[in-house]
Protein backbone atom coordinates (compact mmCIF):
# COMPACT_ATOMS: atom_id res chain seq x y z
CA UNK A 1 0.00 0.00 0.00
CA UNK A 2 2.88 2.38 0.77
CA UNK A 3 4.23 1.88 -2.75
CA UNK A 4 0.80 2.56 -4.26
CA UNK A 5 0.37 5.77 -2.24
CA UNK A 6 3.86 6.93 -3.12
CA UNK A 7 3.22 6.42 -6.84
CA UNK A 8 -0.20 8.03 -6.59
CA UNK A 9 1.08 11.24 -5.02
CA UNK A 10 4.20 11.35 -7.18
CA UNK A 11 2.45 10.80 -10.54
CA UNK A 12 -1.05 12.20 -9.98
CA UNK A 13 0.22 14.88 -7.64
CA UNK A 14 2.80 15.83 -10.24
CA UNK A 15 0.15 16.22 -12.95
CA UNK A 16 -1.85 18.50 -10.69
CA UNK A 17 1.26 20.49 -9.78
CA UNK A 18 1.81 21.02 -13.52
CA UNK A 19 -1.78 22.28 -13.83
CA UNK A 20 -1.24 24.68 -10.91
CA UNK A 21 2.00 25.99 -12.39
CA UNK A 22 0.54 26.57 -15.87
CA UNK A 23 -2.65 28.27 -14.63
CA UNK A 24 -0.75 30.47 -12.19
CA UNK A 25 1.63 31.72 -14.89
CA UNK A 26 -1.01 32.10 -17.63
CA UNK A 27 -3.40 34.16 -15.52
CA UNK A 28 -0.66 35.92 -13.52
CA UNK A 29 -2.19 34.98 -10.20
CA UNK A 30 -1.11 36.92 -7.14
CA UNK A 31 -0.53 35.47 -3.66
CA UNK A 32 -4.23 35.15 -2.80
CA UNK A 33 -5.20 33.61 -6.13
CA UNK A 34 -2.27 31.22 -5.97
CA UNK A 35 -3.21 30.05 -2.48
CA UNK A 36 -6.83 29.47 -3.48
CA UNK A 37 -5.77 27.56 -6.59
CA UNK A 38 -3.31 25.47 -4.55
CA UNK A 39 -6.00 24.58 -2.01
CA UNK A 40 -8.37 23.55 -4.80
CA UNK A 41 -5.76 21.39 -6.54
CA UNK A 42 -4.69 19.71 -3.30
CA UNK A 43 -8.35 19.04 -2.51
CA UNK A 44 -8.84 17.34 -5.88
CA UNK A 45 -5.80 15.12 -5.27
CA UNK A 46 -7.16 14.06 -1.88
CA UNK A 47 -10.80 13.77 -2.99
CA UNK A 48 -10.67 10.05 -3.99
CA UNK A 49 -9.77 9.18 -0.40
CA UNK A 50 -12.64 11.32 0.94
CA UNK A 51 -15.03 9.61 -1.49
CA UNK A 52 -14.29 6.22 0.06
CA UNK A 53 -14.84 7.75 3.49
CA UNK A 54 -18.24 9.10 2.44
CA UNK A 55 -19.16 5.69 1.04
CA UNK A 56 -18.35 3.83 4.23
CA UNK A 57 -20.31 6.39 6.24
CA UNK A 58 -23.26 5.76 3.86
CA UNK A 59 -23.34 9.39 2.73
CA UNK A 60 -24.00 8.15 -0.79
CA UNK A 61 -25.41 11.36 -2.29
CA UNK A 62 -22.34 13.30 -1.21
CA UNK A 63 -20.08 10.46 -2.35
CA UNK A 64 -21.66 10.40 -5.82
CA UNK A 65 -21.27 14.13 -6.37
CA UNK A 66 -17.71 13.99 -5.08
CA UNK A 67 -17.10 10.92 -7.25
CA UNK A 68 -18.21 12.63 -10.43
CA UNK A 69 -15.97 15.61 -9.67
CA UNK A 70 -12.94 13.81 -8.26
CA UNK A 71 -12.80 10.88 -10.67
CA UNK A 72 -13.55 12.99 -13.76
CA UNK A 73 -10.78 15.33 -12.70
CA UNK A 74 -8.35 12.41 -12.97
CA UNK A 75 -9.00 12.30 -16.70
CA UNK A 76 -8.83 16.09 -16.98
CA UNK A 77 -5.47 16.19 -15.17
CA UNK A 78 -4.08 13.44 -17.41
CA UNK A 79 -5.16 15.14 -20.63
CA UNK A 80 -4.12 18.64 -19.52
CA UNK A 81 -0.68 17.27 -18.65
CA UNK A 82 -0.35 15.28 -21.91
CA UNK A 83 -1.55 18.07 -24.20
CA UNK A 84 0.52 20.58 -22.25
CA UNK A 85 3.70 18.60 -22.81
CA UNK A 86 3.02 18.50 -26.55
CA UNK A 87 2.45 22.26 -26.64
CA UNK A 88 5.58 22.84 -24.56
CA UNK A 89 7.51 20.65 -26.98
CA UNK A 90 6.18 22.71 -29.88
CA UNK A 91 7.21 25.94 -28.21
CA UNK A 92 10.65 24.51 -27.43
CA UNK A 93 11.09 23.22 -30.98
CA UNK A 94 10.15 26.59 -32.45
CA UNK A 95 12.65 28.36 -30.24
CA UNK A 96 15.38 25.87 -31.12
CA UNK A 97 14.77 26.29 -34.85
CA UNK A 98 14.90 30.07 -34.45
CA UNK A 99 18.19 29.98 -32.55
CA UNK A 100 19.81 27.35 -34.80
CA UNK A 101 18.64 28.31 -38.28
CA UNK A 102 17.29 31.80 -37.81
CA UNK A 103 13.80 30.75 -38.85
CA UNK A 104 10.88 32.99 -37.88
CA UNK A 105 10.25 32.79 -34.14
CA UNK A 106 7.29 30.63 -33.15
CA UNK A 107 6.09 30.89 -29.60
CA UNK A 108 2.65 30.67 -28.01
CA UNK A 109 2.15 32.90 -25.00
CA UNK A 110 1.37 31.22 -21.65
CA UNK A 111 -2.25 32.41 -21.83
CA UNK A 112 -2.69 31.18 -25.41
CA UNK A 113 -1.08 27.84 -24.53
CA UNK A 114 -3.35 27.26 -21.51
CA UNK A 115 -6.46 28.40 -23.39
CA UNK A 116 -5.72 25.99 -26.23
CA UNK A 117 -4.94 23.22 -23.75
CA UNK A 118 -8.17 23.73 -21.79
CA UNK A 119 -10.19 23.76 -25.00
CA UNK A 120 -8.70 20.49 -26.25
CA UNK A 121 -9.07 18.90 -22.82
CA UNK A 122 -12.74 19.90 -22.70
CA UNK A 123 -13.33 18.28 -26.11
CA UNK A 124 -11.62 15.07 -24.95
CA UNK A 125 -13.68 15.07 -21.74
CA UNK A 126 -16.99 15.38 -23.60
CA UNK A 127 -15.97 12.66 -26.07
CA UNK A 128 -14.91 10.38 -23.22
CA UNK A 129 -18.16 10.83 -21.31
CA UNK A 130 -20.16 9.99 -24.44
CA UNK A 131 -17.97 6.98 -25.30
CA UNK A 132 -18.55 5.48 -21.86
CA UNK A 133 -22.24 5.04 -22.72
CA UNK A 134 -21.39 2.70 -25.58
CA UNK A 135 -20.70 -1.00 -25.18
CA UNK A 136 -19.75 -3.74 -27.63
CA UNK A 137 -20.85 -7.35 -27.40
CA UNK A 138 -17.80 -8.89 -29.01
CA UNK A 139 -18.25 -12.39 -30.48
CA UNK A 140 -15.27 -14.73 -30.30
CA UNK A 141 -15.29 -18.29 -31.69
CA UNK A 142 -12.68 -20.75 -30.44
CA UNK A 143 -12.10 -24.21 -31.90
CA UNK A 144 -11.29 -26.74 -29.19
CA UNK A 145 -8.70 -29.46 -29.74
CA UNK A 146 -10.16 -32.52 -31.44
CA UNK A 147 -10.16 -34.57 -28.24
CA UNK A 148 -11.84 -31.77 -26.21
CA UNK A 149 -14.61 -30.57 -28.50
CA UNK A 150 -18.06 -30.21 -26.93
CA UNK A 151 -20.96 -32.20 -28.37
CA UNK A 152 -22.52 -28.89 -29.39
CA UNK A 153 -21.17 -25.31 -29.35
CA UNK A 154 -20.89 -23.85 -25.87
CA UNK A 155 -21.77 -20.15 -25.53
CA UNK A 156 -20.22 -18.22 -22.65
CA UNK A 157 -20.92 -14.60 -21.76
CA UNK A 158 -17.71 -13.19 -20.32
CA UNK A 159 -17.59 -9.97 -18.30
CA UNK A 160 -14.81 -8.35 -16.31
CA UNK A 161 -14.13 -5.15 -14.38
CA UNK A 162 -17.76 -4.09 -14.21
CA UNK A 163 -17.08 -2.01 -11.08
CA UNK A 164 -20.63 -2.01 -9.76
CA UNK A 165 -20.57 0.55 -7.01
CA UNK A 166 -20.87 4.30 -6.77
CA UNK A 167 -21.00 5.61 -10.35
CA UNK A 168 -22.89 4.39 -13.42
CA UNK A 169 -24.01 1.15 -11.75
CA UNK A 170 -27.41 1.32 -13.45
CA UNK A 171 -25.81 1.73 -16.88
CA UNK A 172 -23.41 -1.20 -16.46
CA UNK A 173 -26.04 -3.43 -14.91
CA UNK A 174 -28.54 -2.67 -17.68
CA UNK A 175 -25.93 -3.51 -20.32
CA UNK A 176 -25.31 -6.92 -18.75
CA UNK A 177 -29.03 -7.65 -18.48
CA UNK A 178 -29.55 -6.73 -22.12
CA UNK A 179 -26.61 -8.85 -23.25
CA UNK A 180 -27.90 -11.91 -21.39
CA UNK A 181 -31.38 -11.42 -22.85
CA UNK A 182 -30.01 -11.05 -26.39
CA UNK A 183 -27.43 -13.84 -26.39
CA UNK A 184 -29.01 -16.41 -24.02
CA UNK A 185 -25.65 -17.92 -23.01
CA UNK A 186 -25.06 -21.37 -21.56
CA UNK A 187 -22.67 -19.97 -19.00
CA UNK A 188 -21.82 -16.58 -17.46
CA UNK A 189 -18.25 -15.87 -16.31
CA UNK A 190 -16.71 -12.89 -14.52
CA UNK A 191 -12.95 -12.32 -14.20
CA UNK A 192 -13.18 -10.08 -11.16
CA UNK A 193 -13.87 -6.50 -10.07
CA UNK A 194 -17.59 -7.16 -10.43
CA UNK A 195 -18.13 -5.49 -7.05
CA UNK A 196 -16.51 -2.17 -6.20
CA UNK A 197 -18.37 -1.32 -3.04
CA UNK A 198 -20.53 1.52 -1.93
CA UNK A 199 -20.20 1.11 1.79
CA UNK A 200 -22.61 -1.85 1.73
CA UNK A 201 -23.06 -5.12 -0.21
CA UNK A 202 -25.62 -3.43 -2.55
CA UNK A 203 -28.47 -5.92 -2.07
CA UNK A 204 -30.69 -4.35 -4.72
CA UNK A 205 -27.97 -4.70 -7.37
CA UNK A 206 -27.18 -8.26 -6.30
CA UNK A 207 -30.88 -9.14 -6.55
CA UNK A 208 -31.00 -8.05 -10.18
CA UNK A 209 -27.89 -10.06 -11.01
CA UNK A 210 -29.44 -13.07 -9.29
CA UNK A 211 -32.27 -12.96 -11.83
CA UNK A 212 -29.84 -13.54 -14.70
CA UNK A 213 -30.04 -17.17 -15.68
CA UNK A 214 -27.70 -19.48 -17.58
CA UNK A 215 -28.21 -23.25 -17.77
CA UNK A 216 -24.62 -24.02 -16.74
CA UNK A 217 -24.49 -21.38 -14.01
CA UNK A 218 -22.56 -18.22 -13.14
CA UNK A 219 -18.95 -18.26 -11.94
CA UNK A 220 -16.52 -15.56 -10.85
CA UNK A 221 -13.17 -14.83 -9.23
CA UNK A 222 -12.08 -11.96 -6.99
CA UNK A 223 -10.24 -8.97 -8.41
CA UNK A 224 -8.26 -6.33 -6.56
CA UNK A 225 -11.27 -4.04 -6.08
CA UNK A 226 -13.17 -6.72 -4.21
CA UNK A 227 -10.40 -6.48 -1.62
CA UNK A 228 -10.43 -2.65 -1.73
CA UNK A 229 -14.19 -2.66 -1.09
CA UNK A 230 -13.93 -5.20 1.72
CA UNK A 231 -13.70 -8.95 1.43
CA UNK A 232 -16.71 -9.66 3.66
CA UNK A 233 -19.04 -7.42 1.65
CA UNK A 234 -17.63 -8.77 -1.62
CA UNK A 235 -18.31 -12.37 -0.64
CA UNK A 236 -21.84 -11.51 0.47
CA UNK A 237 -22.48 -9.66 -2.78
CA UNK A 238 -21.39 -12.56 -4.98
CA UNK A 239 -23.43 -15.02 -2.97
CA UNK A 240 -26.56 -12.85 -3.18
CA UNK A 241 -25.96 -12.33 -6.92
CA UNK A 242 -25.89 -16.09 -7.52
CA UNK A 243 -22.25 -16.27 -8.61
CA UNK A 244 -20.13 -19.23 -7.54
CA UNK A 245 -16.73 -17.90 -6.50
CA UNK A 246 -13.72 -19.97 -7.49
CA UNK A 247 -10.98 -19.28 -4.94
CA UNK A 248 -8.18 -21.67 -5.77
CA UNK A 249 -10.66 -24.37 -6.68
CA UNK A 250 -12.42 -25.96 -9.62
CA UNK A 251 -15.88 -26.97 -10.77
CA UNK A 252 -16.53 -29.71 -13.30
CA UNK A 253 -19.59 -29.49 -15.55
CA UNK A 254 -20.44 -32.58 -17.60
CA UNK A 255 -22.71 -33.43 -20.50
CA UNK A 256 -22.81 -36.38 -22.90
CA UNK A 257 -19.40 -37.67 -21.86
CA UNK A 258 -17.76 -34.25 -22.25
CA UNK A 259 -16.41 -32.25 -19.31
CA UNK A 260 -15.84 -28.53 -18.83
CA UNK A 261 -13.49 -27.78 -15.96
CA UNK A 262 -13.58 -24.24 -14.56
CA UNK A 263 -10.70 -23.16 -12.32
CA UNK A 264 -10.27 -19.81 -10.66
CA UNK A 265 -7.87 -17.92 -8.40
CA UNK A 266 -8.03 -14.66 -6.43
CA UNK A 267 -6.17 -11.50 -7.21
CA UNK A 268 -2.87 -11.95 -5.29
CA UNK A 269 -3.66 -9.60 -2.42
CA UNK A 270 -1.62 -11.36 0.25
CA UNK A 271 0.89 -9.04 1.85
CA UNK A 272 -0.96 -5.97 0.58
CA UNK A 273 -4.19 -6.16 2.53
CA UNK A 274 -3.02 -8.81 4.97
CA UNK A 275 -5.54 -11.40 3.85
CA UNK A 276 -4.63 -14.87 2.55
CA UNK A 277 -5.50 -15.41 -1.09
CA UNK A 278 -5.31 -18.26 -3.55
CA UNK A 279 -2.46 -17.51 -5.96
CA UNK A 280 -1.41 -20.94 -7.23
CA UNK A 281 -2.76 -21.39 -10.75
CA UNK A 282 -1.89 -25.08 -10.84
CA UNK A 283 -5.15 -26.31 -9.35
CA UNK A 284 -6.23 -28.91 -11.90
CA UNK A 285 -4.84 -32.15 -13.18
CA UNK A 286 -3.21 -32.23 -16.63
CA UNK A 287 -5.76 -32.21 -19.43
CA UNK A 288 -7.22 -35.47 -20.60
CA UNK A 289 -9.38 -36.44 -23.62
CA UNK A 290 -12.97 -35.27 -23.49
CA UNK A 291 -12.13 -32.41 -21.13
CA UNK A 292 -11.85 -28.66 -21.85
CA UNK A 293 -10.28 -26.61 -19.04
CA UNK A 294 -10.65 -22.86 -18.45
CA UNK A 295 -8.76 -20.72 -15.94
CA UNK A 296 -10.37 -17.53 -14.59
CA UNK A 297 -7.66 -15.17 -13.38
CA UNK A 298 -8.09 -11.43 -12.87
CA UNK A 299 -4.51 -10.45 -13.68
CA UNK A 300 -3.70 -10.65 -17.42
CA UNK A 301 -0.56 -12.69 -16.88
CA UNK A 302 -0.60 -16.03 -18.70
CA UNK A 303 -0.51 -19.07 -16.44
CA UNK A 304 2.57 -21.23 -16.69
CA UNK A 305 0.13 -24.14 -16.94
CA UNK A 306 -1.48 -22.97 -20.18
CA UNK A 307 -1.21 -25.72 -22.75
CA UNK A 308 -0.58 -28.46 -20.21
CA UNK A 309 -3.45 -27.89 -17.78
CA UNK A 310 -5.63 -25.24 -19.42
CA UNK A 311 -6.99 -24.72 -22.91
CA UNK A 312 -8.07 -21.15 -22.23
CA UNK A 313 -7.35 -18.40 -19.72
CA UNK A 314 -9.81 -15.51 -19.25
CA UNK A 315 -8.57 -12.31 -17.61
CA UNK A 316 -9.27 -8.61 -17.25
CA UNK A 317 -7.83 -5.84 -15.05
CA UNK A 318 -6.34 -3.62 -17.77
CA UNK A 319 -9.57 -2.05 -19.09
CA UNK A 320 -7.68 -1.96 -22.37
CA UNK A 321 -6.03 1.15 -20.95
CA UNK A 322 -9.44 2.90 -20.70
CA UNK A 323 -8.15 6.38 -21.61
CA UNK A 324 -5.70 7.46 -24.28
CA UNK A 325 -2.74 8.01 -23.70
CA UNK A 326 -2.85 6.04 -20.41
CA UNK A 327 -3.27 2.84 -22.44
CA UNK A 328 0.40 3.09 -23.50
CA UNK A 329 1.46 3.08 -19.85
CA UNK A 330 -0.77 0.10 -19.06
CA UNK A 331 0.57 -1.83 -22.04
CA UNK A 332 4.12 -1.30 -20.82
CA UNK A 333 3.12 -3.02 -17.56
CA UNK A 334 0.76 -5.62 -19.06
CA UNK A 335 1.79 -6.52 -22.64
CA UNK A 336 -1.40 -8.58 -23.04
CA UNK A 337 -3.54 -5.44 -22.96
CA UNK A 338 -6.74 -6.63 -24.63
CA UNK A 339 -8.07 -9.22 -27.05
CA UNK A 340 -7.25 -12.80 -28.01
CA UNK A 341 -3.76 -14.29 -27.94
CA UNK A 342 -2.38 -17.71 -28.81
CA UNK A 343 0.16 -18.84 -26.23
CA UNK A 344 2.06 -21.91 -25.05
CA UNK A 345 3.43 -22.57 -28.54
CA UNK A 346 -0.06 -22.59 -29.99
CA UNK A 347 -1.41 -25.13 -27.49
CA UNK A 348 -3.66 -22.67 -25.60
CA UNK A 349 -5.50 -19.38 -25.93
CA UNK A 350 -5.63 -16.35 -23.71
CA UNK A 351 -8.31 -13.66 -23.77
CA UNK A 352 -8.23 -10.29 -21.99
CA UNK A 353 -11.53 -8.42 -21.68
CA UNK A 354 -11.15 -4.64 -21.88
CA UNK A 355 -13.73 -4.01 -19.16
CA UNK A 356 -17.52 -4.13 -18.95
CA UNK A 357 -17.49 -1.03 -16.77
CA UNK A 358 -15.03 1.75 -16.03
CA UNK A 359 -12.98 2.49 -12.94
CA UNK A 360 -12.45 5.94 -11.50
CA UNK A 361 -13.67 8.42 -14.09
CA UNK A 362 -16.78 7.10 -15.89
CA UNK A 363 -14.94 7.96 -19.07
CA UNK A 364 -13.63 5.95 -22.02
CA UNK A 365 -11.54 7.23 -24.88
CA UNK A 366 -10.02 4.69 -27.25
CA UNK A 367 -10.73 1.24 -25.81
CA UNK A 368 -14.51 1.01 -25.38
CA UNK A 369 -16.40 -1.09 -22.84
CA UNK A 370 -16.92 -4.74 -23.73
CA UNK A 371 -18.97 -7.84 -23.02
CA UNK A 372 -17.51 -10.90 -24.73
CA UNK A 373 -19.58 -13.73 -26.18
CA UNK A 374 -17.23 -16.72 -26.46
CA UNK A 375 -18.35 -19.76 -28.43
CA UNK A 376 -16.35 -22.98 -28.06
CA UNK A 377 -16.94 -25.57 -30.72
Task: Give a quick precis of the structure.
By secondary structure, the chain is of the alpha/beta class. It has helices spanning 2-26, 31-56, 60-101, 110-131, 169-183, 203-210, 224-229, 231-241, 326-333; strands at residues 135-142, 154-159, 187-190, 218-220, 244-245, 249-255, 258-265, 291-297, 312-315, 339-343, 348-352, 369-376.
Task: Describe the model.
43% of the residues lie in helices and 18% in strands. It has 377 residues and is an alpha/beta fold. The protein has 9 helices and 12 strands. The protein has helices at residues 2-26, 31-56, 60-101, 110-131, 169-183, 203-210, 224-229, 231-241, 326-333; strands at residues 135-142, 154-159, 187-190, 218-220, 244-245, 249-255, 258-265, 291-297, 312-315, 339-343, 348-352, 369-376. It has 2 domains: 2-131, no CATH class; 136-376, Metallo-dependent phosphatases (Purple Acid Phosphatase, chain A, domain 2). A hairpin with a 2-residue loop joins strand 6 (249-255) and strand 7.
User: Would you identify the CATH H-level superfamily of the largest domain?
Assistant: Metallo-dependent phosphatases
Instruction: Give the strand tally.
Output: 12
Please identify the top-level CATH class of the largest domain: Alpha Beta
Major β-sheet annotation: 6 strands, mixed
Number of domains: 2
Fraction in beta strands: 15-25%
Amino acid sequence: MAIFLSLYFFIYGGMNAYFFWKIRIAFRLGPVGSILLAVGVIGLVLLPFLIRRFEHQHALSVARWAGWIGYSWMAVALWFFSVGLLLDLGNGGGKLLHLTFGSPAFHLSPLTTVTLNLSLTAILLIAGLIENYRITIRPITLVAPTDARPPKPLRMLFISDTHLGLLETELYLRDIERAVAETRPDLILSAGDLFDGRGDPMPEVAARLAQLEAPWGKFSVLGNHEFYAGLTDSLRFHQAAGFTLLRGETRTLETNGWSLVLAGIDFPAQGVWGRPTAVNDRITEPRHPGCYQILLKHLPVPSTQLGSHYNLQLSGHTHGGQIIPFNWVVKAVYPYLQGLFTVADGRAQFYVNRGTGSWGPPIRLGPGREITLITIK
